[in-house]
Amino acid sequence: MNYNEVEILIVEDSIDDANLTIRSLKKNNIANHLHHVKDGAEALDFIFARGNYSSRTNPVDLKLILLDLKMPKVNGIEVLEKIKSDPKTKAIPVVILTSSNEDPDIKRCYELGANSYVNKPVAFEDFFRSVKELGFYWLMLNKATNS
Amino acid sequence: MFQFFTKIHFRKKITLIFSIILIGITAIGIATFRNNQSIQDTNNLVQHTREVLSESEQVLLFTQDIVLSTRGYVITGDSNFLQPFLKANNLVGENINAIKNLTKDNPAQQLRTDTLAKLIKERIEFSSQTIELLNKKGFAKAQQLVAAGKGKHFMDEIRNTISRLQQEENNLLNIRQQAYAKSLADFNRSFFLLLGGILLLLIIVFFTIRHNTLLREKREAEIQEKSSYIKNNEERINKIMDILLKYTLMDFSQQMEISEKGDALDAIALGLNTLSEELQKHIEQLKGNTKQLAVMNKELESFTYSVSHDLRAPLRGVHAYTKILEEDYFEKLDDEGKKTIGVILRNSKKMGELIDDLLAFSRLGKKEINSMDINMNAMAKTVADEFISSDKENKIEIKIDSLPEASGDAALIKQVWFNLISNAVKYSSNNKKTIIEIGFSPNENKNIYYVKDNGVGFDMEYYNKLFGVFQRLHSQEEFEGTGVGLAIVQRIISKHHGKVWAEATLNEGACFYFSLPPISN
Questions:
Q1: Residue B147 CA to chain centroid, in angstroms?
Q2: How far apart are CA B102 and CA B93, in angstroms?
Q3: Using N-to-C axis directions, what is the helix angle for B312-328 and A15-27, rounded to 10°?
Q4: Cβ atoms within 10 A of the Cβ of B32, count?
Q5: How far is B299 from chain A (nearest CA, A)?
Q6: Is the complex ipTM more than 0.90?
């Protein structure tokens, strides 16, 4: 896989959930160059082209990061903080995709600069719809990221 | 009478008695004055009588002078003997006039005086005649005239008249003196009576004042005693005040020292000490309970969090992948397989809903209400419109009356409307036409709103289960639902210090009421 071509990064510790997300994006033909990482540490390595991903020397701009919050090692909030505080990366749209609907989480994410916060519903249809919608939005309709 | 007397106020009593004494003294004054007048009058009359007597004596003397001097002249022929006659002749008129004057007011006396005057005039004339006769005809003729007794006759008459005059005067004087004696007796009686009365009143005054001052002294002594008790115990009283002040600041830690006196203050101190001990105990207990509750709350919060995350994730796995199975392998499944997948999907979806509802219900416990003025009409209409717009068959009709504003948390109250209207729609879904009325029932202190439907209603016998968590009065096949909607409504409304209740008739419909505080003026 050429990590330089990745446009969408999925940060999710649950394989099952990741597969659902990927499946939804694929079904809606938005699955351009996806990559999935299993925890926050790996996500940061990828974004900042270090560790296992030091081969990402000439990357295209990431169009979207789908970020889960509850992950081992480095959790979503920390990843968000790092992304949004680095001038090189803070423009990347980050959508928090999580099953947590607790207010403090939502508030903190927006405070840190998350672009959107979407709940992972149990009913698959809704999940499917959510992914489709945000996929379209961030990739196609959101002009701000397309320079 | 005495009872009445003691009830009158002290000052009024004194004023009354002194007024009576004053009147009494005035009365004595008047009586004395009048008595003096009487004395004066009596004196005057005595004087008067004396004068009349004196004058009348003088008249008699003069008359006797006349008689004697005439006789002397007649006997001696010496004109020296006529001197008294001449003198008397001159002067007697004056006396008679004096008497006339003195007896002016007494007609009887006047008459006598006139008679006297006349008699004296005649006697003088007789004497003159006698003298003339002597001078002209000699002694023997004069002697004859004298012996005839006419002169004596006149003299006797004169004496009589004077005597009667004097008697009359004396009578009058007697009468006057008797009258005076009587009036003096009256005066004395009145005087001593009044005096006695005044003395009696003074005695009463004395005892009244004495009684009053004794009372006052006694009361002052009592007050003195009490204030000296307070002064002596000022320190202890202040300590008690300090402790009570601390109570108002919820500090029950101080204890009061008990002196050995065993008086009221000690009793109070003892009571306060017991009270503060008890209160301290209770406060410690409450603190402990509160700590416990805080801990339990924290546990509950983490439990909720856990539920929202950890339960959902695997459930999502089940549901989503079953769905994938259904999508991707639909043709490869037989009927039994399809049915089985349907069951799995249905149940996992249901479980997701249960988790959501349970979370929503538990979250209500934490939430604070942000009170504001709510336009109930607008809110109810917004919620109702959602149902009407998704009502493709135009089965639903929702009437909303004019509703007054209420005070409450907008998000929570919207939830209430949603749950109630959603129920009304759901339980009327078997009808051809669903008619829902939303209205307002006036009440003094609160606003009462209601949602009425014409659906299946419920059996009032199971009323107590209506608002229970996960309690349902219908099966899932009849009407789907988790049984948490009304429980949520009740929780929200009781957080707003209101009440929820309902009435229903089986198969005719139900009406749900809830009360909210009106907007503050």
A1: 110
A2: 14
A3: 40
A4: 13
A5: 15
A6: no
